[in-house]
Specification:
The protein is of the alpha/beta class and about 475 residues long. Helices cover about 30% and strands about 25% of the residues.
Length: about 475
């Protein structure tokens, strides 16, 4: 808790309990900041915030209020500065490893935490906030600054020296990360995504690349040499650069890999030496993710050889190519894949495991870019024996119209429409035979379904578990 006078010179000694940007979450004594969202101007919710007990308001417009009001030029840019000050600049006590990219952020960030240990390295991203002292879900991959700096303080208080965090393109676009400097910055890959926010691929790429400009002069940028935007990203780096990929000259070069006995056998070259390793994380994409994570740990001083001994204990974050076992004679894989690029990378790994049919259950989120749906659906249909198209956070679109988009670029008719996702998963499980693979894609371990303006409780994992409980009862 701080006094308003400690945050803004010349104002009253009013106790400030917390900082909020959602008027519905305001409690007595909070400072309400009127940031600008995609569709919402929070200046419109000042009276609601005051009715909930806001002690003061930060604005960027001349609006008369019944409580002390602080006028700033830009509330979005003000918020991280204010939050940092309120929580006593916790980011200064953390060495932050930032991970961005279209795919792989969660896996890479999670693996880095595992390699370093939860006692000294925190994790913040899609799977929540995790340290040795706490593990909690959060709503956004990279939260707004009012929550972000609160989490930073919690990591510091938990004894973390490092923080590995996912940094989304939207977070850069919304100025949530403007005040941060990173010890290390990792770009896994860049393919088209989130154009509902960024409008053009150029804008999207620019937001991803913003991370490189925020890496400390003494820090490291870690790049994938096999990514389309590698050369462009390389030209923006002003500090140490280390690389990974198949190309000769990569700091950590991928020489070969194949799957055997449910493990990846990988041959890597690092500093002139060749290493044969086994990884429990399956698929080509996880070979790349592992390399990014190893270099992330190396960049802050860990010895490469020491890290290799920890690989056998690595676990993919929940919902990332997660193999589920219920004693069934077929394979069930849960994955977050929701872009054309993600599906194009996951199917080769599935085909290498395939003995029977490949059954895919998937959909596409509503209220997001529609142009990816046709190419994504085409990849799914052409790589699956059977596809059950269903809902995936439809929001304010109809599931049927989304499926129309998914099927419009392919003439294949190897699919069914089952609008209810639970029903679709049950259908896939009931039709699977020995040697088949079921891929349930899109939601991972999300615990909600976005329908209309509501977030309804829902979990793919719980649906699958309930099927086997009912079957075995």
């Amino acid at each position: 808790m701080k006094k308003l006078s400690e945050l803004y010179e010349g104002y009253e000694d009013i106790p400030i309990k917390d900082i909020k940007i959602n008027s519905k979450e305001v409690e007595p004594g909070d400072l309400f900041v009127c940031t600008m969202g995609v569709t919402a101007d929070r200046h419109d919710y000042i009276e609601d915030a005051i009715s909930h007990g806001a002690a003061a308001i930060v604005v960027s417009k001349d609006i008369p209020c019944s409580v002390p009001t602080i006028r700033v030029r830009d509330t979005n840019q003000e918020l991280p500065l204010l939050a940092s000050k309120f929580y006593d600049f916790p980011e200064k006590d953390l060495k932050i490893i930032a991970v961005t990219g279209t795919n792989g952020k969660t896996t890479v960030a999670g693996m880095i935490q595992q390699l370093l240990g939860k006692e000294k390295c925190g994790y913040l991203g899609t799977n929540g906030i995790i340290s040795s002292k706490f593990e909690e879900p959060i709503r956004n991959t990279t939260p707004d600054s009012d929550r972000l700096y609160k989490y930073f303080r919690r990591f510091v208080d938990a004894g973390c020296k490092y923080l590995c965090m996912e940094t989304s393109s939207e977070a850069y676009f919304r100025n949530r990360l403007d005040q941060l400097q990173f010890e290390t910055g990792i770009i896994t890959n860049i393919t088209e995504d989130h154009l509902n926010i960024h409008k053009t691929i150029e804008n999207y790429v620019s937001c991803k690349q913003q991370m490189l400009k925020q890496v400390k002069e003494t820090g490291f940028c870690i790049l994938n040499t096999d990514d389309t935007y590698f050369e462009e990203c390389l030209g923006l780096c002003q500090n140490h650069v280390i690389t990974y990929g198949k190309k000769e000259g990569a700091t950590l070069q991928i020489l070969s890999y194949h799957m055997k006995d449910s493990k990846m056998k990988i041959t890597l070259k690092y500093q002139g030496k060749t290493y044969e390793i086994e990884s429990p994380l399956l698929g080509e994409f996880n070979v790349y993710n592992l390399c990014a994570a190893l270099l992330g740990a190396v960049s802050i001083g860990e010895k490469f050889e020491n890290l290799l001994s920890r690989i056998s204990n690595l676990k993919a974050p929940g919902g990332r190519f997660e193999l589920l076992e219920f004693g069934q004679p077929y394979k069930i894989i849960l994955d977050y894949a929701h872009t054309p690029d993600a599906f194009s990378k996951i199917y080769p790994s599935l085909n290498s495991m395939k003995q029977g049919r490949l059954i895919t259950v998937t959909g596409s989120a509503g209220g997001r870019e529609t142009r990816k749906r046709g190419p994504m659906g085409k990849i799914v249909l052409e790589n699956s024996d059977v596809v059950l198209f269903t809902m995936d956070d439809p929001r304010n679109e109809t599931v049927d119209s989304i499926i129309d988009d998914l099927t419009k670029l392919s003439s294949r008719q190897n699919y069914e429409r089952i609008l209810d996702r639970k029903e679709a998963i049950y259908k896939a499980l009931s039709m699977a035979k020995e040697g088949d693979i079921i891929l349930v894609a899109g939601k991972g371990i999300d615990n909600y379904m976005a329908v209309g303006d509501e977030y309804l409780p829902y979990s793919d994992l719980e649906v699958i578990e309930s099927y086997f409980k009912r079957k075995n009862s």
